[in-house]
Amino acid sequence: MDGFKKILYPVALTEISLKVAPYVVTLAKQLDAQVYLLHVLRTFDWFVDTYVEDPPEPDFKRIASNFDNTILEQAEQKLENFKKQYLKGIQITNATVVRGTHYRQILDYAKSEEIDLIIMGTGTKAQRMMFGSVAGKVSKLSKVPVMLIKTG
Questions:
Q1: What are the domain boundaries of the chain?
Q2: Would you write out the chain's pLDDT as a tens digit for each of its 152 residues?
Q3: What is the Cα–Cα distance from 27 to 113, expressed in whole angstroms?
């Protein structure tokens, strides 16, 4: 191992992200590492692509598709603002927003970018019970080390 030179920080854009960011900044500076930011949006494909023989008025598929695009644009702006406010003084190589299943997108991105380390927050106990643990799935399935920051 040559060290951790590429760090992936999956940013939830929630209060968890605010708690994890200082750890990412500290490690990136100490390791002189590049940081990759990834925010994953849930998709509306299941609804937009549903077959309806006689589409209702108004065209809900079009409305849902437009809403999905608006959410993507807003997430990109929020990620950019988060980067400027909380990740100063480190090298951000890429900041990306994608759609899909959270843990799968994180793992696929880590593989495609040849990431050396993933840093994530664990969320609160209630969040893990309600939504499952994305961090847990990533840590179990990842081929690279995963640092989990307790945020709850």
A1: 6-149
A2: 578 999 999 999 988 899 999 999 999 999 999 999 999 997 655 555 555 555 556 665 666 667 778 889 999 999 999 999 999 999 999 999 999 999 999 999 999 999 999 999 987 666 555 446 888 899 999 999 999 998 86
A3: 19
Arch. (CATH architecture) of 6-149? 3-Layer(aba) Sandwich (3.40)
